[in-house]
Inverse folding.
């Protein structure tokens, strides 16, 4: 059903012209500069197909933004200046990786901080209740019960209650 | 010692809540409007059809309404009558400009021939001027004051009331009084 609806929508879009006509991007720069263009393009978020970089996006606006990067690099702008150009217009939203500064440190350090806190809590718990300590009293406490459960001349004759338990266990 | 641990954990929790508040408190699809109060990026572009050159610098002293649109954009076509109406209402006080976004000149020319446009439509090669303005999609309309400062942006198809409210802010109290007549 979904496939049918999508097909109908795409057919209607094609018939009504509700799509951006594909336009060729500007010519690639010389290899070293084009590598910078693509690297910067990978860092910037596409405004229409979000979650993708403008270097990976097939959207026309992403192509226009990539062309702008080419223009800026051709004008001799540094990578930081190109980033600053886009941040000035689209905010830090445009950066796929937020800058490691100010409140953004929380995003970068938060996971590591949570891991440290987690390990600290585990370490403290282990230190407070060591396994050896917690295991030995239990086993020591179990021993007398085992011993008591074994039939012995003294206990069997003296304790009616134990007799009763044993007879119940034998059923 | 124990109160220090409690304090540290409380601070960590507060930081986490703050990050979550910031994250969930905003629409992740909404592109921030960064150019409010900033000088409008200048441009010199040709108009569709006549080829007349329009420069924003030469329009200094007149408020400008700059609308980015495309023929393939259904909301833009829906907004078109509002802009025609707005031009008739405020065209004597504000310079209206359209800018064709990510579309071919042929498509735009055919659409304008069919639907009409009382104000100039600019051809923006490779949408480079649109990127200068931080356009993320169409329609987007920028309200630029007489000093060339961007005062507002609307990133959805406007109705008459929305447009009128924005233009009143752009023109200020004196113009609002004139419009109220």
């Amino acid at each position: 059903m979904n496939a049918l609806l999508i097909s109908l929508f795409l057919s209607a879009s094609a018939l009504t012209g509700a799509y951006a006509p594909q336009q060729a991007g500007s010519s690639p720069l010389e290899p070293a500069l084009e590598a910078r263009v693509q690297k910067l393009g990978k860092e910037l978020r596409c405004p229409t197909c979000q979650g993708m970089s403008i270097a990976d996006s097939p959207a026309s606006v992403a192509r226009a933004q990539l062309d702008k990067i080419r223009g800026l690099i051709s004008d001799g702008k540094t990578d930081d200046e190109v980033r600053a150009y886009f941040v000035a217009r689209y905010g830090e939203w445009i950066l796929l990786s937020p800058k490691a500064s100010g409140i953004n440190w929380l995003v970068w350090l938060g996971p590591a901080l949570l891991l440290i806190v987690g390990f600290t809590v585990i370490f403290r718990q282990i230190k407070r209740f060591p396994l050896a300590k917690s295991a030995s009293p239990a086993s020591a406490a179990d021993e007398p019960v085992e011993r008591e459960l074994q039939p012995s001349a003294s206990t069997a004759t003296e304790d009616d209650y134990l007799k009763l338990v044993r007879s119940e266990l034998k059923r | 010692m124990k109160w220090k641990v409690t304090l540290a954990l409380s601070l960590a929790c507060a930081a986490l809540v703050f990050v979550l508040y910031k994250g969930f408190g905003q629409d992740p699809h909404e592109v921030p409007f960064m150019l409010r109060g900033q000088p409008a990026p200048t441009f010199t572009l040709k108009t569709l059809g006549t080829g007349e050159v329009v420069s924003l610098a030469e329009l200094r002293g007149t408020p400008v309404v700059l609308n980015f649109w495309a023929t393939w954009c259904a909301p833009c076509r829906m907004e078109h009558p509002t802009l025609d109406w707005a031009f008739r209402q405020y065209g004597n006080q504000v310079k209206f400009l359209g800018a064709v976004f990510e579309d071919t000149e042929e498509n735009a020319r055919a659409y304008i021939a069919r639907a009409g446009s009382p104000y100039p439509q600019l051809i923006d090669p490779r949408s480079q001027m649109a990127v200068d303005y931080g356009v993320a999609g169409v329609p987007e309309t920028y309200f630029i004051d007489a000093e060339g400062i961007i005062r507002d942006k609307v990133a959805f198809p406007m109705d008459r009331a929305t447009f009128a409210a924005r233009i009143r802010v752009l023109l200020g109290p004196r113009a609002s009084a004139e419009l109220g007549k």
